[in-house]
Amino acid sequence: MDLFQSLWYTQKSWSSGRTPYLTDLHSIQRLSAELDIGLSSLGMLSWCLQFSIALTTAGFLLGYHPTRYLALAQIPLRLFFLSPSIAPVLLLAGHLPSLFMLALVIGSEVLKGWSLWQSAR
Hints:
- By secondary structure, the protein is mainly alpha-helical.
- The mean pLDDT is about 90.
- The protein has five helices and no strands.
């Protein structure tokens, strides 16, 4: 599922004329001079989440087993930014009631955490 989200992020960036990850990082750094520390910190946290998703995509594709710890560490940020591990859930955003969407995001993270925990044992 991280592969789907990484491809989606990359495609959206390219179609907007941006270089994935680098343009966004540069924009956050440029805006941090205009915004307060709280907003620029949120921007950096969001960028770190997206970049770590790209790292877990590569790690899982390469079969690097410690990647699951990075994936587990993503869970709090995914919940905070409402970025579900089951990325197709994002396609439903705006079409479902907010509480149902929140339940889907929490459910996807519980499922992800459980499956990663099981694979670590």
